[in-house]
Every structure is written in C-alpha cells, then in structure tokens.
Amino acid sequence: MRVLLAEDDQLLGSGLRAGLQQQGFQVDWVRDGVAAQRELLTGVYQACVLDLGLPRQDGMQCLAAVRQQKITTPVLILTARDGVPHRIAGLDAGADDYLVKPVDLMELAARLRALVRRAHGVSEPTLEAGALRMDPASRQVWLGDRLIDLSLREYEVLQIFMLHAGRVLTRTQIEQQLYQWGTEVSSNTVEVHIYNLRKKLRSDVIETLRGVGYMLPQQVKPAPVTGHKGTA
C-alpha cells in the first residue's frame, strides 16, 4: 500500500517513514507543501499523511488545492496544532482524519488502513472477494478455510487486487501502487508475482485479459470439493 508522507521535520519524518515501512506501507516522503500537492495530483497514492506547518505552502493550502482538483485520496492530518478549531478547520477543508503529534505508530497505521478501506467502500476490518479473505492488520490471507502463506511482496500485490476487486488493472497501475521512489523494477516483476500467487491460491483466481491487464473477480469461488464415491 503506497502512501505519501508530507513532513518537514527531518528526524520525525525519518522515524515515521521507517515505522510505516515496518507496518507494510510503501512510503514516499516530501518535505514541503508544493511537493505534496504535486505528488497528490498524480493520484497514485492510497493515502497521505499531511503535516500542516509545511514550508513553501501550508498543509491546509495544499489540501484545499488538491480537493479543488477532485483528488479523493484519503488525507490524514498529522500536526502539533491540537486546538479544536484547528481540527474542525482541517476536517472541513477535506481531511479524512486528524491526529496530534506525538503519535503512536501502531495507531497511525491502523487509521491509514481504515481510511483506505473506507475509500474503497469497505466498512469491515477484513477485505473479502467471495471465498478469498484478507486481514490487513495481521497480513493474513485465507482461501476458504485454508491459510495461505505469502511473501510480503505477494501479499502487497494481492492487496492491490483485493482493493480493486472486479476492476481490470494494468501492469503500470499495479507498479505505481506497489513501489515507492527509488525502487528498481524489472519488466516482468509483476508477472512473476502474479504467477506465484496463482500457484499458491489457484490458477483461476487472478484472470488475465490479454492486451489489457489483470483482474481479481469480486466473487472468488471456493475450492471444489474432491472425494471418492464409496462402492456398494
């Protein structure tokens, strides 16, 4: 899950990025409001953690500009401004959540997961597509009653599909949500992860639409029941 962190404090920003990465997020970090606005306008992020006291452009100005451009990326304001009027102003300006520094990293991660779920129309704590179920908090995946052992990157690819179940995703769209800045991506990396997911799940769970992309159905079928009939 790729998120944008907009924080000008070097020490705090470094700690937040490292902590969120440990929680399974891919984090791009900018240090001023102009850069934050530019990155949010790309529309590639699942969520944004936005400080208000940014140089070059205040976080509130950044948020207002982004919302005027109809960018709906969930934004969590993280600031030292703890007054109720500041919270009201931030939420009314288009923020989806508001936390006051200092912040507990586990709570920040949980709030980001909740924001992303709600942005995709999911109110439950787990993501489900028929028989396929994912718990983002524990990073566990089940197909029916079977717990699936996935690598971190395989889990991240599957999470992208789960959040967009029923929609066709191109390889470029998957890469944009999967990798943060500075990550070298081989031309067939996404295909390799999808191949491995099919081996661990089932070959028909992720569909290929040739010349277009890939899709996870909204209703993944359970594994067929196998057995032998007894003889009379």
UniProtKB/TrEMBL annotation:
This protein's record includes keyword Phosphoprotein: yes
Predominant location: cytoplasm
Modification 4-aspartylphosphate occurs at: 51
Response regulatory domain ranges (all copies): 2-116
Protein origin, superkingdom: Bacteria
GO molecular function: phosphorelay response regulator activity; transcription cis-regulatory region binding
CC per GO annotation: cytosol; protein-DNA complex
Record protein name field: DNA-binding response regulator
Source species: Limnohabitans parvus II-B4
